[in-house]
Amino acid sequence: MNYKTGLLVFGVIALGSQSFANILVNPGFETGDLTGWTTTGYTATNNDSHTGSWSAISFGNVFVEQDFAGVAGSSITEVSAWVKQPSLTGYFFAFDILYSDSSFDETLGSGADTGTWTKFDFTSLVNTSKTVTGIRGWGYSAGGTNDITLYDDFVVNANTVPEPASMAALGLGALALVRKRRKG
Ligand SMILES: [Ca+2]
Predict the structure, then answer these.
(1) C-alpha 35 to ligand 1 mean position (Å)
(2) Fold assignment, 19-160
(3) In the chain, what are the domain boundaries?
């Protein structure tokens, strides 16, 4: 494959592909701390995890939150997290989708807790007409000190396919490279 053909193939692939990347930093707490997150009481623990070695743990009604550069709700293809509440007889926690207008949507996670890690999908909670700027998972307190809520492997997948303008710029750049190559 020559240089020009290579560029053409690259261009076609770029135009035809859609990238669904997790935009979160440190989504599974494998840094061993809460880098990228803000919290009112969560800490990282390596005593339990869904994947890797680490997860985030709380005792009671506190949250762990990650804020990020705004992405269109319509571009989000998945919001999810793995949750474990080993000390409760049923799941009970809250999860928020945060928006650029300072509003948020909240849902309660509930159901049978078998004492194992369970994936909760919050994708349908996203308001597709708003700009999403963060997510927030809450622990739970029923008045005791043993209400443990563990989180791991948060996902916010967004369709990061380039805007038409940047695709055009990419095309022009490729053309310029071809021309420069020919001159040389
Ligand atoms: Ca982990």
Answers:
(1) 13
(2) Jelly Rolls (2.60.120)
(3) 1-17+163-184, 19-160
The torsion defined by the Cα of 15, 20, 24 and 30, in degrees rounded to 10, comes to -120
133-157 pLDDT, tens per residue? 999 999 988 756 678 999 999 999 9
| Neighbouring-strand partners of residue 151 | 56, 83
* Residue-wise pLDDT tens digits, 161-180: 655 555 566 566 666 655 66
Q: If you write DSSP's letter for every residue of 112-148 in order, what string do you get?
A: E--SS-EEEE-GGGS-TTSEEEEEEEE---SSSS--E
Return residues with CB closer than 5 A to ligand 1 (ion): 28, 49, 52, 54, 152
